[in-house]
Request: fold
Amino acid sequence: MKKPKVYRRLASGHHFGFASGGWVSLHLAPDHLLLRSSAAFAEQYRRFYFTDIEAITICKTVRGILWNAILGLGLFFSLLPILLNRGPHIVAGSFVGAFGLLLLMNILRGATCQTHLQTRVQKRALPLRRVRKALRVVNQLTATINEAQVEIASTLPRRSENADSSSPSVGTLPAVAPPPLPSQAEMAGTSWLHLAMIGLLLLSGAAAIWDAWQHQVAIMYVAFAGLGANLAVAIWALVRQRRKVVPMAMGPIAWVSVIAHAVAVPIVYTIYTYIHAIGLAQRGNPKVFQTVQLSLSELRGLPAFEHVFMIYGAFCILLAAAGSILLVAEGGRTQRAQI
Amino acid sequence: MSLRQVACTECGANVPPEFVNADEFLGCPGCGQLFRVFTFPALQRTMAGNAGLPAVETGEASCFYHAQKKAIVACDSCGRFLCALCDVEIGVSHRCPACLEAGKRTQKLETIEDRRTLYDGLALVLATVPLLLWPFTLFTAPAALFLVVRYWRRPLSVLPRTRIRFVLAFLIAFAQVCGWLFLFYFLATNRRNTA
Reply:
């Protein structure tokens, strides 16, 4: 029996260290937070139940500014040879691009921070190292934790009445209207992107098969556009399913689509192109070697390419059909479980 | 019974009350570090020690482990009555010490597991990385196959994780073993033909 997906990833990051380096990630479950630390082939877990969480602290750090300074210096020293030589320089240009990109990313990600979670017996650092993200996650958690601690909160006023007036106060909590605890259905959310992925697979598959039969230029462009769009949508779906729980059947479909489009298709394209280029060169047409990057039309004109298109189209349609069947089956199971 | 406070993560100074649940980042009075504190009702909760209540009246349920103590809850695993001393609260569930120990030993109680080894990742690395120095695959491929067979049914990560690594490791290692067998067969027949 497949394990139900109860955890939703909130954040992840890398922590460096000689003995304890590895990945850390924070996951949300219906009644607790799970902090996973993985190093090599082992994982360690720490669970923080909502009823035990006392405080979350976000402390601003200067790490982002330091990185900006380091990357800015790198960018400056990479620009120097270009400025001094007054001409393009491929090595320096590459470094300028790399440093510029990293600097831009660091600026866009915003200010850095350290986030700590406090319970009665421990204080742990969370993998929330950007202020914007930390605030977003904490705001999301605040409502859930307050809801879980509503019983504790209800006992507090009575205690404060009985307590000595000189006892230290830790601030009053704002009255928060507790929203319901995130249920599995709410966490699953809509998977419209995955449905779009299936639709796109069907469309491009049908276009590829039609082109293999009819040899129409317009359809060919639709099929190639569908190939690119499939790759983009599948990557987007993968990113989305890491942040949001989607129907279990959709995860593998997105992975298969990404792997097939990102790895198999370019490899097949390259091998196919080279084989035909070599074949044509052997038949006395050496110019083909100068045009390895065949245009789409030329590629389409290669002998037996319609078979490749046919296979691609069949693959897309089969994948979409498998996704649809799994989705329908999962929907049926969910309905039966609800009944 | 004093109420607890939140301390600055940099200098350890107690956070003034006006900092708690503030809408903006404020500087710590001790070190000037900018921070925000979000507190929850559990911070103000006082935890008094409870050694278990005595069975005050005849006919009341008593703890399975302490006959003189009054039972307050039943174990969610075995159903035994437990006093406040024996009750181990894990989230919303209650367990007795015996079930807790058994669950930890047999890895059946997922909510108390704090460590797992990912044998699928280990098998996949063992099946793929030695390909860079292929003669080592003579030893690593069988080892990867052993790991796949031995730990196939072992629970993987607590988080959702498929067995695709095991499958890939098995296929790659199996191909390597077949390759070695073919090589040995080829060498043996070649030598026989030469002789």
Summary: The two ends of chain A are 19 Å apart (CA to CA). The longest strand of chain A covers residues 8-15.
